[in-house]
Amino acid sequence: MHRLRVAFLFGGRSEEHDVSVKSAMEVAAALDSAKVEPVFVGITKAGAWKLCDGPSPTWEAGNCRPAVLSPDAETRGLLVEDGGAWRAIRLDAVFPVLHGRGGEDGAIQGLLELASIPYVGCDIQGSALAMDKSLAYIVAGHAGIATPAFVVLNGAAAPPRDLACPVFVKPARSGSSFGVTKVERPDQLDAAIAEARRYDAKILIEQAVPGIEVGCAVMGNGADLNVGEVDQITLSHGIFRIHQEARPEQGSENAVITVPAELPDAKRGEIRAVAKSIYVALGCRGLARVDMFLEPGGRIVLNEVNTLPGFTSYSRYPRMMEAAGIGLSELVDRLIALAVGR
Ligand SMILES: Nc1ncnc2c1ncn2[C@@H]1O[C@H](COP(=O)(O)OP(=O)(O)O)[C@@H](O)[C@H]1O
Ligand SMILES: [Mg+2]
Questions:
Q1: Spatial contact of 295 and 267, defined as CB atoms under 8 Å apart
Q2: Among 61, 83, 145, 313, which is least packed, fewest CB within 10 Å?
Q3: Does the reported pTM lie above 0.90?
């Protein structure tokens, strides 16, 4: 079997740039070089694409050259600047290790569809649906999944007057808890809305769901799905915001993540089944991490779906798969195999 030439895209223009670099470092370290010939492309915060030596916090200071992904389906790869000319590098697949806007919302997936290059993860529609929390709730709700009660504020619209606190205010399309605020009293609402609007013109105000947060890693295409172990987040206070903490590698200030979740087998099985239903309802492919709430009464409620979840050393998706016996190298290998249809 010939080695697959796979481009790993990382960085990007979203607020999750730094998280993406960390994710890509873990993925790169787990690669099996007997099977994969990696090509690393970093995207700067300003949006410049560069072929580089690999992901690291200082990748831009290394050996870099301009590179672009051609939408031309005959090129099927990258155009790299080489001595004033553009040289084409054919690709067998692309792994967009990108989080948030531009990476997880269907944009890069659209470019890859035009380029006719297989890629890891959800297609345009699945990505775009999962990225917008309100659309994900509508589609999942239609499939019979419980979701938080919510209202959408578009543009400069004013919030409804009759909100029962506590509520969560959040950008419709962001991640890593950027712009998310828990509002306990009505007088905190305006500041929370202003904070969320820093990230998106479309925002959600949703009812706080009591209970604990649980997650499930899902991998696969069509009906052939693999699920990881269920995890559980126990918060001492506040909200889950590990990616904005100073030293997440050493553990979180307010959250303990337990894998497998300390729940009866039957409940973990039910959470896995709900996660699969949500994955199918949103039309996911490749992989996704499905985050849910488990209410004290046992009801499972959708929180959000991440179609390119974190792969950092402290990230939940790889840990849930590891707990189910799929280590990171095998995981990366299988995700690429799913993309190329092997
Ligand atoms: N409706 C809700 N009820 C309870 N907690 C919530 C709710 N919405 C968000 N949170 C808290 O805020 C965190 C971040 O919100 P989330 O919707 O997951 O956005 P992000 O995409 O930034 O992760 C969640 O992990 C959870 O701790
Ligand atoms: Mg979340």
A1: no
A2: 83
A3: yes
